[in-house]
Amino acid sequence: MTDAGTTNAATTNAATTNTARTHAATADAATTGYGTDPLDPASGLSGFGGADGSPRVSYLLRVNGVERPVNGAWIGESLLYVLRERLGLAGAKGGCDQGECGACSVQLDGQLTAACLVPAALAADSEIRTVEGLAADGTASDVQRALAGSGAVQCGYCVPGMAMAVHDLLERNHQPTELQAREALCGNLCRCTGYQGALAAVEAVARSRAEAAEAAEDAADAADDPDDGTGGAEQAAGAVVAAEAAQAAEAPVAEPVGQAVQDEYPVYADVEIPGQQQGEPENYDPLFGPMDGLGAEQQFTQPQAQPQYAYPGYAQAPQPEPYQAGYPQPGHPQPEYPGPGTPPEGAEPGVYVLPHQGTPQGMHQNTHAPEAGA
Amino acid sequence: MLPASLDEAVTALAASPAAVPVAGGTDLMGAVNAGLLRPMALIGLGRINELRGWQYQDGTAQLGAGLTHARMGRPDFAALMPALAEAARSAGPPQVRNAGTLGGNIVTADPAGDTLPVLAALEATVTLVGPEGGREVPVSHLLTGLDPMRGGELLGYVRVPLLHAPQVFLKATGRTGPSRAAASVALVLDPARRAVRCAVGAVAPVPLRPLEAEQWVSGCIDWDGDRAIDPAAAAAFGEYVAAACVPEPPQADPEGLEGGPAAAAVRLRRTVSVLARRALGRALK
Ligand SMILES: Cc1cc2nc3c(=O)[nH]c(=O)nc-3n(C[C@H](O)[C@H](O)[C@H](O)COP(=O)(O)OP(=O)(O)OC[C@H]3O[C@@H](n4cnc5c(N)ncnc54)[C@H](O)[C@@H]3O)c2cc1C
Ligand code: FES
Ligand code: FES
Question: Which of A131, A163, A185, A302 is placed for a possible disulfide with A91 were both Cys, Cβ 3.0 to 4.6 Å?
Answer without folding.
Answer: A131
